[in-house]
Amino acid sequence: MLLKAAINGGRSTAEHPAVPRTTDEIVAASRAAIAAGADVVHAHVLTEAGEQTIHPDDIGAWVRAMRAADPSVVIGTTTGLWTVTDHTERMSHVAAWPDDALPDFASVAFCEEGAAEAAQLVLERGMVLESAVWTMADVPALLESPTLHQNVRVLIEPETEDPDEAVAQCREIAAVLREAGVTAPILYHGYDATVWPVVEAAIADGCETRIGFEDGITLPDGSAPADNADLIRAVRELEAR
């Protein structure tokens, strides 16, 4: 089972002191996550002020630092509209990501304006594409996108805070995608209270999954992990059972 480490997202160190925020911390956490059993790493780059960013200078600095530390680590980032003022700026930033410092993959959320165009740009820039849907309402836009069959995976990210509903939504959306002819691997992941039930459902359903501080800050028993690597090991332990 492919396991993605989502190591920071919008989490603050007030939520967990080990959330990686600086470039050096992100690099170290990425390497530790891979050593613990993750296959790929998804990270959000932050400005000096602590805001999430996809500015070309910041993306380039992070990718170069990661490549210098360990070029074997497969890394990706977001193209989320919350990192920019609007879709136009998103397109401008992604188009200007440095040719010599591109992430391996980038994520596009199909709940957002301009998602199909952003997905095409990711591929045109030579990166691997993964597309995300948050609710059933996002599915038509994904299915209509010209890049549908060029995804390395499709992420299902239920927004509900109810664990049973989150699992049910993952399975309902996955069934619709398969019925529509989507053949790419499907990845389930939750957030906070839904993290571990969704991870367990992914394992049971033969899907990919992800874990890390972006998604949750507790282990299956409710205790606090020391770091992202602890969360990765917990998933691999569940999988082994």
Low-confidence stretches: none
**How would you characterize the largest beta sheet?**
8 strands, parallel, barrel
Termini separation comes to 13 Å
Write down the secondary-structure element order: EHEEEHEHEHEHEHEHEH
What characteristic shape results from the CA principal axes? globular
Kindly describe this structure:
- This protein is an alpha/beta fold and 241 residues long.
- Helix content is 39%, strand content 16%.
- The chain contains eight helices and ten strands.
- The protein has helices spanning 23-36, 56-69, 87-95, 115-124, 139-144, 163-179, 195-205, 228-240, and strands at residues 3-6, 40-42, 45-46, 52-53, 75-78, 105-109, 128-133, 151-156, 186-188, 208-211.
- It has an eight-stranded parallel beta barrel with strand order 1-2-5-6-7-8-9-10, surrounded by five helices. The chain has a two-stranded antiparallel sheet with strand order 3-4.
- Helix 7 (195-205) links the parallel strand 9 and strand 10 (208-211).
- Helix 1 (23-36) packs parallel to helix 8 (228-240), helix 3 (87-95) packs parallel to helix 4 (115-124) and helix 6 packs parallel to helix 7 (195-205).
- The longest helix is centred in the C-terminal third of the chain and has 17 residues, at 163-179.
- It starts with a strand and ends with a helix.
- 44% of the residues are buried.
- The model has no long low-confidence stretch (mean pLDDT 98).
